[in-house]
Amino acid sequence: MGLFPFGKDYSKEGPGVEKDTPRKTGIPRFFEVVGRDLTGMFLANFFTCLSALPAICLVTVGLLGRSLVVMLAGAVIGGAIAGPFLAGTYDTVLRALRDEPGYWWATYRRAFRQNWKSSILPGILYTLVVTFQIYILYFCFSTAAQGGSVGTGMWVAAILNLLVFHMLFTYMWPQVVLLKQPFHQTLANSLLCMLGFLPHALAASVIQIVFWGIVILTMPLGVILMVLLGFWFASEICCQMIAGDLEQVFHVEAQIRAQKDAELARALAEEDQDSPGE
Fold this sequence. Notes:
The chain has helices at 26-64, 68-97, 104-115, 120-145, 152-178, 183-196, 198-217, 222-228, 230-250, 252-274. By secondary structure, it is mainly alpha-helical. The chain has one domain (26-259). Helix 1 packs antiparallel against helix 2 (68-97), helix 1 (26-64) packs across helix 9 and helix 2 packs across helix 3 (104-115). It is globular and about 80 Å long.
């Protein structure tokens, strides 16, 4: 007898999940992925936060000293360090969205070894752009706070800069960890995807800007937000939003299946060669 004596007998096996059952979408999908893979995403985010400390410290020193040169130099050094770890966070999030099985630490280390070289240049570019944006916004707000006049054109340019570059980065980082291609090709693809899927790109950009704006404006309490949510939270939402775009353009899951089938075939062939003949 089942646990409940009335109605269905819940001790019997259910039908399970059909093979071709479509994935959930929207908020249910978010909670499904987070509920299952939160630990891995949190740990990847923690490593990324640690790797970002050099950039944060150097850029802050330059900002307090009002030296754009120091800020940009700190961005280059810090971006080279943080880039591979940020790629690790995106790799973790994208694996979760693909429902890919495996132990997080093993897959994270393998992906880190595969992607660290190709993620240094994107990390430098990303940190440079963000640092320049921080400098421009700091200039605008400090000038306004001191009673100075900041032209409307300056504000419009600053906001457009934020929107456009984060739209570009939304499609850049997934390509860094998913595709083996030159960085200039990644940037070209990102620009085309940004224009081709403009509503998704714009929404993802706004999410990133709002989230990181909250983190910065609530400092020092924002440090807690950065450690708990930081890079994985906004990345998961944005990657979930554009996953269909990436699949439509690059056929990511088909490529990954083909790659795994090829690896399995090679492993079986090597095993046959190593086995003694009958």
